Fold:
Amino acid sequence: MTEDLPPKARSLDWLVGSLKGASHGPVVRRRRRVVLLLVLLWVLNSFDLMFTIIAHNMGTFNEANPIARYLLEHPYAVTAFKLGTLVFASVVLLSFSHLRLVELSCWTLCGVYVVLSVIWLVYFERNSELILIPKPPPRGVMGSVWMMG
Structure:
Protein backbone atom coordinates (compact mmCIF):
# COMPACT_ATOMS: atom_id res chain seq x y z
CA MET A 1 0.00 0.00 0.00
CA THR A 2 2.72 2.52 0.89
CA GLU A 3 4.67 1.50 -2.23
CA ASP A 4 2.00 3.29 -4.31
CA LEU A 5 2.56 6.57 -2.46
CA PRO A 6 5.09 9.21 -3.55
CA PRO A 7 8.28 9.29 -1.42
CA LYS A 8 7.17 12.39 0.51
CA ALA A 9 3.88 10.78 1.56
CA ARG A 10 5.71 7.57 2.46
CA SER A 11 8.05 9.50 4.73
CA LEU A 12 5.06 10.83 6.68
CA ASP A 13 3.39 7.41 6.73
CA TRP A 14 5.57 6.20 9.61
CA LEU A 15 4.61 9.30 11.60
CA VAL A 16 0.88 8.74 11.15
CA GLY A 17 1.25 5.01 11.84
CA SER A 18 3.30 5.59 14.96
CA LEU A 19 0.72 7.98 16.37
CA LYS A 20 -2.09 5.50 15.70
CA GLY A 21 -0.33 3.02 17.96
CA ALA A 22 0.85 0.54 15.35
CA SER A 23 3.72 -1.29 16.96
CA HIS A 24 6.15 -2.92 14.56
CA GLY A 25 9.27 -3.02 16.63
CA PRO A 26 11.71 -0.96 18.62
CA VAL A 27 12.38 1.59 15.85
CA VAL A 28 8.69 2.46 15.49
CA ARG A 29 8.31 2.72 19.26
CA ARG A 30 11.39 4.96 19.42
CA ARG A 31 9.98 7.18 16.66
CA ARG A 32 6.67 7.39 18.55
CA ARG A 33 8.51 8.46 21.71
CA VAL A 34 10.48 11.07 19.75
CA VAL A 35 7.27 12.49 18.27
CA LEU A 36 5.62 12.67 21.70
CA LEU A 37 8.74 14.24 23.23
CA LEU A 38 8.78 16.83 20.44
CA VAL A 39 5.14 17.67 21.18
CA LEU A 40 6.11 18.15 24.85
CA LEU A 41 9.09 20.24 23.76
CA TRP A 42 6.81 22.50 21.70
CA VAL A 43 4.52 23.01 24.71
CA LEU A 44 7.44 23.74 27.05
CA ASN A 45 8.97 26.13 24.49
CA SER A 46 5.67 27.98 24.23
CA PHE A 47 5.64 28.49 27.99
CA ASP A 48 9.28 29.60 27.92
CA LEU A 49 8.53 32.16 25.21
CA MET A 50 5.49 33.45 27.07
CA PHE A 51 7.34 33.68 30.39
CA THR A 52 10.31 35.41 28.72
CA ILE A 53 8.13 38.07 27.11
CA ILE A 54 6.15 38.65 30.33
CA ALA A 55 9.31 38.95 32.43
CA HIS A 56 10.87 41.30 29.89
CA ASN A 57 7.76 43.50 29.94
CA MET A 58 7.85 43.56 33.77
CA GLY A 59 11.29 45.17 33.52
CA THR A 60 12.98 42.84 36.00
CA PHE A 61 14.51 40.43 33.51
CA ASN A 62 17.94 40.67 31.89
CA GLU A 63 18.37 38.30 28.94
CA ALA A 64 21.88 36.86 28.80
CA ASN A 65 21.69 35.80 25.15
CA PRO A 66 22.63 38.88 23.04
CA ILE A 67 20.55 37.75 20.04
CA ALA A 68 17.48 37.14 22.17
CA ARG A 69 18.10 40.42 24.04
CA TYR A 70 17.91 42.33 20.75
CA LEU A 71 14.89 40.34 19.55
CA LEU A 72 12.99 40.92 22.80
CA GLU A 73 12.55 44.53 21.78
CA HIS A 74 10.38 43.18 18.95
CA PRO A 75 7.99 40.48 20.28
CA TYR A 76 7.03 39.29 16.78
CA ALA A 77 10.70 38.85 15.89
CA VAL A 78 11.48 36.82 19.01
CA THR A 79 8.40 34.67 18.36
CA ALA A 80 9.43 34.09 14.73
CA PHE A 81 13.00 33.29 15.81
CA LYS A 82 11.81 30.83 18.45
CA LEU A 83 9.39 29.17 16.03
CA GLY A 84 12.00 28.99 13.28
CA THR A 85 14.60 27.32 15.47
CA LEU A 86 11.99 24.96 16.88
CA VAL A 87 10.76 23.95 13.42
CA PHE A 88 14.32 23.44 12.19
CA ALA A 89 15.25 21.34 15.23
CA SER A 90 12.04 19.32 14.95
CA VAL A 91 12.68 18.51 11.29
CA VAL A 92 16.23 17.40 12.04
CA LEU A 93 15.20 15.32 15.04
CA LEU A 94 12.28 13.72 13.17
CA SER A 95 14.54 12.92 10.23
CA PHE A 96 16.83 10.90 12.48
CA SER A 97 14.21 9.71 14.96
CA HIS A 98 15.22 6.10 14.43
CA LEU A 99 18.52 6.76 16.26
CA ARG A 100 18.88 6.18 19.97
CA LEU A 101 20.96 9.37 20.26
CA VAL A 102 18.03 11.46 18.98
CA GLU A 103 15.67 9.99 21.56
CA LEU A 104 18.24 10.65 24.29
CA SER A 105 18.63 14.21 22.99
CA CYS A 106 14.86 14.75 23.11
CA TRP A 107 14.68 13.44 26.68
CA THR A 108 17.57 15.75 27.64
CA LEU A 109 15.96 18.79 25.98
CA CYS A 110 12.64 18.10 27.69
CA GLY A 111 14.44 17.73 31.03
CA VAL A 112 16.23 21.04 30.54
CA TYR A 113 12.98 22.81 29.66
CA VAL A 114 11.18 21.29 32.66
CA VAL A 115 13.95 22.63 34.92
CA LEU A 116 13.70 25.98 33.13
CA SER A 117 9.93 25.99 33.73
CA VAL A 118 10.52 25.41 37.45
CA ILE A 119 13.02 28.28 37.45
CA TRP A 120 10.41 30.50 35.78
CA LEU A 121 7.82 29.54 38.39
CA VAL A 122 10.24 30.45 41.19
CA TYR A 123 11.11 33.71 39.40
CA PHE A 124 7.47 34.72 39.11
CA GLU A 125 6.75 33.67 42.70
CA ARG A 126 9.53 35.95 43.92
CA ASN A 127 8.40 38.80 41.66
CA SER A 128 4.67 38.30 42.12
CA GLU A 129 4.14 41.86 43.37
CA LEU A 130 5.15 43.12 39.91
CA ILE A 131 2.51 41.08 38.13
CA LEU A 132 -0.69 43.04 37.65
CA ILE A 133 -3.36 40.67 38.91
CA PRO A 134 -6.46 42.31 40.38
CA LYS A 135 -6.89 41.51 44.03
CA PRO A 136 -10.34 41.27 45.60
CA PRO A 137 -11.32 44.12 47.90
CA PRO A 138 -11.18 43.57 51.66
CA ARG A 139 -14.14 41.79 53.20
CA GLY A 140 -17.09 44.01 53.77
CA VAL A 141 -16.22 46.43 50.99
CA MET A 142 -18.93 46.39 48.33
CA GLY A 143 -20.64 43.45 50.03
CA SER A 144 -20.01 40.12 48.35
CA VAL A 145 -19.82 41.58 44.84
CA TRP A 146 -16.40 42.06 43.38
CA MET A 147 -16.34 44.14 40.25
CA MET A 148 -13.26 44.65 38.16
CA GLY A 149 -13.10 47.77 36.14
